Each structure stands twice: as C-alpha cells, then as structure tokens.
Amino acid sequence: AMAAAQATLDTIRDEGLQENVTRIGALMTDGLRALAARFPAIGDVRGAGLYLGVEMILPDGSPDAAAAARIVNDLRARRVLISATGPAANVLKIRPPLVFSAADTDRLLTETEAVLAAIYG
Fold first, then answer.
1. The pTM is what?
2. In terms of Cα–Cα distance, which of 45, 60, 58, 35 is closest to 117?
3. Which long-range contacts (CB under 8 A, 24 or more apart) does 75-83 make?
C-alpha cells in the first residue's frame, strides 16, 4: 500500500498535476462564469480547482432541478459526462480527472454552451 501511495504522489509531482489543476480550473471557472453572464438560469459558479458546481435556478431564484437534469442528459448525449447534486439536485457537478487539458475544457464549455443555447435560446 505504501509503494502504491508513493507512486501516486510521484506521478502527481512528476506530471505537474497540481499546477494543471490550478491552471485548468481557472480556465474552466472563467468559461463557466462567462456562460453565467449570458444565461440568467445559472445562479452561481463555485468550487476549487477542477471540482466545480454550477447552480441552476428559476427566474424567481429558486432551485431548478429539472434544468439541471436536462443539462446532464443533453451533455451525456454529446458524450460529456457530468452529474447533478445538492439538496435540491439543481447543481451541476463537474469534476474531471487531474489530467484534464485546455482542449478538454474547450470541449466542455462549447458543448455546455450549445446545450444552454438550445434550452434557453
């Protein structure tokens, strides 16, 4: 068990995965916040690194679990996997692997934008 743990820590260090999380997490957060500025149904974008939540709300500010479920399913149809979580099931949970790249982020944001545009116009 100790050898496996050390090998994991060595990989994280040697492949610069902590730096990647910081850089790609900021890129992803900025992109999601730009989408939030365009689509009022996004109430909040929060998280740290690559672990992000995007809150979906109704016009009155209440949770919109139906929208979150639709977005999850529409993204799945586009081969992008995220989930919904939270007490009201209205928060899109995005937690990609540590090796997620700028190209992966671009695809996530592009597909999410397309789904939101299809739903909200």
1. 0.91
2. 35
3. 75/111, 75/112, 75/115, 78/111, 78/114, 78/115, 80/107, 80/108, 80/111, 80/112
